[in-house]
Amino acid sequence: MELSNHLKPADPHTTLTHHQTEDAIPTDALLSSPNEIAMTRDLPQLKILLAEDNLVNQKVLLMQLSSLGYEVDVAANGQEAVNLLSTAPYDLILMDCQMPLKDGYQATEEIKSSPASAFLRGRHPIIVAITANAMQDDRQKCLEAGMDDYLSKPVPKEQLSAVLDRWTQTIFTSQPIMELEPESQNARLEEDLIDFDWEHLHQLSENNQEFELELLQMFAEDAAIHLQAIELALAQPDFSALEREAHQIKGSSANVGAKPMQVSATQLERMAMQKQLAGASDLLSELEGYRDRIQAFLGNRA
Fold it and tell me: What is the mean pLDDT of residues 93-119?
């Protein structure tokens, strides 16, 4: 059964309009019933490849997938993802859209243009787009590249689980199916960063404080690298680099719950796309200031 070119949004309230083939999953079949969820427990487990270059986003998704019981391989860019397909029988790829060397769109087009016999499973792997963008034209771009499904960052664990359950049944049964209080110790942490989305982080970590602190440390270190790159891009100026680096911070800050940084990075990315510099230095200062607050917060708990 050919499973390419059937893109469904993970949000059950959002439907992509496109040509439906006989293998397409009905757009009104997006929530898993208890019986269908139980069915997946008797099916083989998906062999998953995560293609994501951002270390913070990698850590978040790997934690979520591990808690769902999946073992996952990681590719740092689209070219690595394409290369790894010849080494293991992957059923599904979680594909970030913006990566170096070869982005998710280019990697997907190459994968989908290859014959099914080129893959160790004898069929094309399912490709689920993961992107920080959520506009209709971004969904259309994923569809045109040949992606099968769509998730927006930050990815709720429940939506991730529903998508994987749905594709598990589709792949292994060949039948269209239906998708599917912080601890007091954590509460004390919230006092230092009042405008941080702690509720999101607690849900993400399942109230694991050690994971939260490790993730925030990784985020602070990764953000420092991208902020340096933004400073260089502003000095040249290099709008392409500025857009790329701002997008990286936008995605990772959304994943950890650093909403002020997400807002500033989104504005900076938009300015880069419009090739405007007025106010860009102020946004960089805002990003650096909030990143420093996170680092100081972590330092107080060392």
Answer: 91
